[in-house]
Amino acid sequence: MAFLQETPQPFFRVPAVVPLLIVLLVGIELSREFLWSADTQSVYANFGFIPALYSRDFIASHHYIAPTWFELVRPFISYNFLHGGFAHVAANSIWLLAFGPVVARRYGSVLFLVYFLLCGIAGAVAELISAWGSVVVIVGASAAIAGLMGASFRVMGPNPREQAQVPASLLSRRILLWSAIWLAVNVIVGVLGVGAGPGIQLIAWQAHIGGYLMGLLLVGPFDALVRWAGYSSQERPI
């Protein structure tokens, strides 16, 4: 009966916010597939991220009605929760389950969600700058998850079950090597043009890079925020 007394493995200590976020992403995709299937294009157009909509020249040349401020701001967040199919949301869910717990355990549920959204927004900004005027719709949580990956790289200790109290330096050999490999893979995938077709882009490598870099950079400010709030390493906000 000794196995009943073993310490729970890391998988079973996943903070609740991570699987709840996965359930939300899958639930939205189920709704899009089965409840909004007739309006899929409208859903993507309204809630996906389309760089062209931020170009006045594009709006004027196509005689579109200029979007409101809310319509311009909303896609920076909403595109993270849309996906291009079950394979897309399943892949993102696996990566989220792999790297999300590291950030959630370090900062707590609320700050984890803020981290996730900030990295997603950074991905949209990177896509907007690099693909200005593009009519391709960007959807998916990949950029936000790439940010969680970057954060995980910085805070993981020598023992994968433990986190380093002091994050690895941005210029450390480990971070530079992992980042170089990760960035190279993303650029190669982008050059090969892997995606869902002419209208929807699943692998927006520019957005991935933007999210990843934001994830690397936010570790310091978030650690400082947690210290300022007075939380110990065992007392993260739920």
What can you see in these coordinates?
The structure is a single chain. With 238 residues, this protein is mostly helical. Helix content is 61%, strand content 2%. It has nine helices and two strands, in the order ααααααβααβα. The chain has helices spanning 17-34, 40-47, 56-61, 69-73, 75-78, 86-130, 142-155, 173-192, 205-229, and strands spanning 137-138, 200-201. It has a two-stranded parallel sheet. Helix 1 crosses helix 6 and helix 7 packs across helix 9. It is globular.
Architecture blueprint of SSEs:
Blueprint: H1 17-34, H2 40-47, H3 56-61, H4 69-73, H5 75-78, H6 86-130, E1 137-138, H7 142-155, H8 173-192, E2 200-201, H9 205-229
Parallel strand pairs: 1-2
Q: What structural category arises from helix and sheet content?
A: mainly alpha
Which strands sit side by side, in order, in the main sheet?
A: 1-2
What fraction of residues sit in β-strands? under 5%
Dominant shape: globular
Helix content: 55-70%
Largest sheet: 2 strands, parallel
Q: Estimate the mean pLDDT confidence.
A: 83
Query: How widely separated are the two ends?
Result: 33 Å
Calculate Rg over CA atoms: 19 Å
